[in-house]
Input
Amino acid sequence: MDSPIKVLLTGASGTVGSEVLKLLSQTKEFELTVFDQNGSKSRKTFSPYSKHIHIVYGDISKKKDIEKLPVNLDIVIHLAAIIPPLAEENPELTFKVNAQGTKELIQFLEKTSPDVFVIYSSSVSVYGDRISSPNIYTTDALKPSEGDIYAQSKIEAEEIIKSSQLKWSIFRLAAIMKNHKISKLMFEMPLNTILEICTPEDTARAFVNAVYNKTALTGKVFNLGGGANCCITYREFLQKSFLLFGLGKLDFPAYAFADKNFHCGIMADSQELNTILKFQKHTLNDYFEQTAKSIPFLKRMLGFIFQIPIKWYLLNQSEPYKAVRKNNKLMIRHFFNESNHALLTLK
Output
């Protein structure tokens, strides 16, 4: 009998990580170690698998915690990261985890698992604002939007991996959507953005299938998206989401939403990865149907009854809206196109 494949999964309690964990645990061919911070979320996520996996808790940016990991690993699926909105609120933590944490992990692997294959999850954010050119290719320049700490940290982590002595592949993920949460961050994406989503289940399938396709993937960067049936304008996406939550029309002031300086687009070459890994199963309709089923009837009814105060609350969380109301010229320049500046400063 062949020896089990020794796999390390970081960020295993996250949206994608928990789906990867689910898939990896369905077969006995893996000897699986998960690495994550010790918290209620991770403990709850790992509890059903605790008899079948090795759990290591720690801070990925600390060498003493990384050194708790097994040696002679075969595969590392590196998903651990600080993501928005926390990534923007705490830049120091973002670089500490996303960049320094990746560096500590790679240095450990170079010493203890020189033959390992590392699969890293990067982000569409590294391409920056793509409203004027929504079709994105891996050959495109990396131009993070102004002040996008998360994207900057991902680019730094990519460079650490590329310059390592290890075998690697990098997947730049589209917008990963599951039970989309309506929050203040929603106002920072321009409504005319064209985005491609991917479900956590499809994304996880790509990472797991990558384990069996090292030769085709090694030393390459890929865009990972849900495919042609997962593309939509942000305006339409939000409007459908609002209806599902009982919140009615998307009737905010135009200047509640930014004009620029976000990211997302169409992963125009994601079929290259899908041809290898055959992970694209879900469509936008699947996403919206799944979301509808996940929203309790009472929550939808409360959304309908209290939609006016809920929208008022959300509007007052909008950073673009605050910039206009406070006549903050610096932030107005950050969020809005120059053609709108004079008009907005009169609001």
The chain has two domains: 5-233+258-291, 245-257+294-344.
